[in-house]
Amino acid sequence: MNPMRPLLPWAAIAALLLFGASVWGFGAALPGYSQTLHPVSLLGATGVRHALAFNLLAYVLPGLVAALVAIDLRARLPAGAGWWSRLGTQLLLLSALGMIAMGLLPLDPQDLESASSRLHGTAWMGWLIAFAGGSAALAIGLLSTRIAVRLAWVSGVAALALLVAAFVFPAWVGTGIAQRLALAVWFGWFACAARRTSLAARA
C-alpha angle 125/130/39, rounded to 5°? Predict the structure, then answer.
């Protein structure tokens, strides 16, 4: 058994709270910043005050926790979990690494076509696609083998919710709110997955 497993649910909740507090706190300290209009990544952009601290607290540390959850979930899959489930956990790990990469590759608000801005955008898209694909693949695998059925349904709903929040909601509620909804789905799924201390049939 992974000795860190009992701590992962608390770590996942702490990562969610740390992210939320960082976005709220650093946003309040940045003049003119709007939580409903501006993207989260602006708080960690090149040239913004305290950007390094924000990127560490909001992206890198939560991403590391998510990576640990994905690795632990992969280790907890039963031998008969199937190819889809294993592919899903690998993609979920890539999504966690994408979160870390967004903190290490900050946006350049003065030049959105710069190499750093393009790399940040690539990390964001990789984060999104890897999670949507990973949670969907995990749902397919778990449902097909009747293992952790509730987690399977949560994963399927999370995949759809993230895509809707990222690609549909911006036209209705604006980019700032839509991005925060997508991030809430992501953090919520990892917190839920971390609570699953076992993966049993029909669980």
Answer: 35
What is the phi-psi region of residue 202: left when phi exceeds 0, alpha when psi lies from -120 to 50, beta otherwise? left
Instruction: Show Cβ contacts of residue 113 under 8 Å, excluding neighbours closer than 6 positions.
Output: none
Given a contact cutoff of 8 angstroms between Cβ atoms, the answer to whether 58 and 127 are in contact is no
Helix (H) or strand (E) holding 57: none
Q: What is the pLDDT along the chain (203 residues), one digit of tens a residue?
A: 566 777 888 999 999 999 999 999 999 999 999 999 999 999 999 999 999 999 999 999 999 999 999 999 998 887 777 899 999 999 999 999 999 999 999 988 887 677 888 999 999 999 999 999 999 999 999 998 887 889 999 999 999 999 999 999 988 888 889 999 999 999 999 999 998 655 654 44
C-alpha closest to that of 201 among 74, 71, 77: 77
What sign does the CA torsion over 71, 72, 73, 79 have? positive
Question: Pick from 158, 153, 105: which is nearest to 131 by CA?
Answer: 158
Give me the numbers of helices (H) and strands (E) for the chain, helices first please: 8, 0
Local structure of 102: helix, strand or coil: helix
